[in-house]
Amino acid sequence: MPVSRTLPPTAPLVRLPPAEKVIMGVDPGTQIMGYAVIEVRGQHVRVLQYDVINMKALGSNHAVKLKRIFTRMLELIDEFLPDELAIEAPFYGVNVQSMLKLGRAQGVAIAACLSRDIPFVEYAPTKVKQAVTGSGSADKEQVARMLRQTLELPPIEEAPKFLDATDALAVALCHHYQQGNNVKAGAKSWGKFLEDNPGRALAATTTKKVARPK
Fold first, then answer.
1. Where Mg(2+) 2 is bound, by residue (predicted)?
2. Is 164 designated active site?
3. Strand partners, 53
4. Which of 27, 51, 122, 167 is flagged as catalytic?
5. What is the strand order of the sheet 84-88 is part of?
6. Host domain of residue 53
7. pLDDT tens digit sequence for 148-177
8. pTM of the shown model
9. Is 111 a domain residue?
């Protein structure tokens, strides 16, 4: 569901500076996975798209769902050419089997980005909520309301699947707010990684990007 707005015909043409960064946010799920893509130009953030990967119709075959996540992630990557992936860490609940499945879904989404040499950053759910709403205990509805106010989003139906999409948007915005001072579980920032591994820089930049759609 594209969310970019069209200027009225009488509005003057405004030339924006080149995009500094395109960030993809992902809220992992085994039934519904939220995703969002934002474009950063200076202090201006524009939402390119936010939606979900709905896998409820795929039945109980977990492998089929993982394949769907990987395929759709590659499609989104090739369409929007994100510079970085921000992904929410699994919430540690009491159901071990659910946690294992959620971890696999997250891993497949990360693997799709790594296959295109896109670095990732992982954020705890409380970190995302704190960054967007100021409270680490905010619920999904509060996160969605704050995002609509901050990013001037058009009203959308408050269905569970859209709340997964706004959760993904919150992850992307949280990553933007970090301004390069990211802390992620089990991995360093991409800049720090290249600084510590100069020989990997060439390999990470061999994929040629085409011009992003306007």
1. 88
2. yes
3. 33
4. 27
5. 44-54, 32-41, 21-27, 84-88, 120-123
6. 20-182
7. 889 888 776 655 668 999 999 999 999 999
8. 0.74
9. yes
